Model the fold of this input.
Amino acid sequence: MKRKIIAVTGLIGSGKSAVMSILSQMGYATVNCDEIARQVATDPDVIRSVSALLGEQSVVNGALDRKYIRDKVFADGKLLDKYGSIFYGRVKRLLQQRVKQLPCDVVFVEIAVLNAFEFDWAEIWQVVAPSDSIVSRVVQRDGVSEQNVRQILNSQSAPCRYTRLIDNGGSTADLKQQVLRALAEAQLNK
Done:
């Protein structure tokens, strides 16, 4: 069987991590691109390039200041594109390495910015939630302003293509049932 790499994507705060937690608890291999991004945020070459683009204030204690960068790039589409070209190439290389090291046939990858780079996804699962729920979750989780979250939401776009849609507007039990249904439809039950 050819290895299947499945993207789990969605807007900020939509519930991607909740879906990944369910999959992990069921014994599926999972990779979090946000964790890879945190690793990239300490890469000296990336730090130098981002600092040259956004200024020295984009680096704190030898790592990229994600909150500062988020505030800066999501308010300016051109900066977002330039930052993305620096940052996401490195994320893609590390993702490919990590997936290759996993000894399994199915890997789920949590990825917020699906169009950040090209990848050979077997399927794309898009997680959605009501915008008010998203704003509330992110404000509470990240300690940022509602305005900042809305700027991010306005700059993000849902994937043009997806294989399965998972609605995280209900309870955790509802979400688990949707994940189980998606696994059955994709013929990935363990």
Q: What stands out?
A: The domain at 4-185 is CATH 3.40.50.300 (Rossmann fold). The chain has a mean pLDDT of 89. The CA atoms of residues 36 and 95 lie 7 Å apart.
